Every structure is written in structure tokens, then in C-alpha cells.
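Practice problem 4.
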């Protein structure tokens, strides 16, 4: 603590690691940090809403008495998702 004003300096805080000089993506003059934040937030929210609508669809089918259709939807979604990942990986290795 600063004895004169009673204010705390950043290096006196228990988390002084966070008050070290920032990398380029945290420099206020750079817009890179805004773009990284925007991409991360968009990705998180997109994944969250996709998963929640997927789960809601399965629960809605199960609640309406269409349990078999819900299980088929679940199985097909997972299988097609894994198939798409495998296809993307194969295409990526061919493009190298």
C-alpha cells in the first residue's frame, strides 16, 4: 500500500500477475483484443445455443411420446457430426 494516500499499487495486489504488461492483444490501441473477444464470445454463445436446441429437440420428442424418434435423432446427429469431422480432417490432410 502507498503510505501517503492509502491507495494500493498494482504490484501490491495478491494477483499482481494480471497487472503485468499486456501482450499485443490486450493493448487498448489495438483492436485485436476486441476481435479475439468477439470471436470467443460468438463461438461460446453459438455452441451453447446449438447444444441447448439439440437437447430441447430430444427432450421434446421424448415428452411427446416419440422416444424412439428422439433416440434416432440423437444417434444420427452424433454419427453425422463425427462423420463430418473425419471428412474435414481428411480434406485438410489432402490440401497440405
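Answer key:
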Amino acid at each position: 500500500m502507498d503510505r501517503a494516500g492509502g491507495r494500493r499499487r498494482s504490484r501490491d495486489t495478491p494477483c499482481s500477475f494480471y497487472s503485468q504488461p499486456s501482450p499485443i492483444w490486450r493493448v487498448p490501441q489495438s483492436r485485436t483484443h476486441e476481435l479475439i473477444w468477439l470471436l470467443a464470445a460468438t463461438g461460446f454463445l453459438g455452441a451453447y445455443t446449438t447444444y441447448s436446441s439439440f437437447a430441447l429437440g430430444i427432450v421434446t420428442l421424448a415428452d411427446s411420446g416419440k422416444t424412439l424418434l428422439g433416440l434416432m435423432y440423437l444417434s444420427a446427429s452424433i454419427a453425422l457430426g463425427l462423420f463430418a469431422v473425419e471428412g474435414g480432417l481428411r480434406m485438410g490432410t489432402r490440401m497440405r
